[in-house]
Amino acid sequence: MSTEAIQAEFHRPLPLDRIVPVGHVADIEASSAECAALAVRLLLPAVLRLSCRFRLHPHPAGRVAAAGHLKARVVRTCVITLDDFEVEIDERFSVGFVPEGTESDDSDPESEDEICYSGGMIDLGEAAVEQLALALDPYPRKPGAELPETAPDAENSPFARLAALRQKN
């Protein structure tokens, strides 16, 4: 097994020393090859476009606050019809980059997400991919797709058949 570090599909490293006290704005965009690799990772039929703008501000103890604006176009598979369809994602989020080993043990789901980093470098690409994954609907429905109306057939239900068997005995 190789000891080389596995590189993320959408790697956009940013040295912490580029984030000045007044802040830093970074725009990132995935190439078509990166989008194809992300589709495989996220189990999607396709990622057509992914971009993100980060507004970064340094905080004490190596923490970096980030406000992001993610835009993506992905192909999803409808859970009802199994048809593929395109979805636009336009998501605003905030995360905190923290030095590895200093992450909070706060279990409140409403608290800001933390992304660990090491070596004086944060990965904006990986942060964008994590936010994309969080923005995806776990049960995507194609617009207009409806569950079929089924009236319960009391006479043919499994319980009705069991009751009939019980009455015979």
Nearest-integer average pLDDT: 88
Q: Give the class from helix and strand content and strand pairing.
A: alpha+beta
Helix proportion range: 10-25%
- Cα distance, first to last residue? 64 Å
Strand order of the largest sheet: 2-3-4-5-6
Radius of gyration: 23 Å
- Overall geometric form: elongated
Largest sheet geometry: 5 strands, mixed
Number of strands: 7
Proportion of β residues? 35-45%
Low-confidence stretches: 1-5
Order of helices and strands: EEHEEEEEHH
Number of helical runs? 3
Features:
20% helix, 3 helices, 169 residues
Structure description:
By secondary structure, this protein is of the alpha+beta class. It is built from 3 helices and 7 strands; from the N terminus they run E-E-H-E-E-E-E-E-H-H. The protein has helices at residues 32-41, 124-135, 158-168; strands spanning 13-15, 24-29, 46-58, 64-77, 84-99, 113-117, 121-123. The N and C termini lie far apart (64 Å). Residues 1-5 have low confidence and may be disordered.
Summarize the structure.
The protein has helices spanning 32-41, 124-135, 158-168; strands at 13-15, 24-29, 46-58, 64-77, 84-99, 113-117, 121-123. It has 169 residues and is an alpha+beta fold.
Secondary structure layout:
Elements: E1 13-15, E2 24-29, H1 32-41, E3 46-58, E4 64-77, E5 84-99, E6 113-117, E7 121-123, H2 124-135, H3 158-168
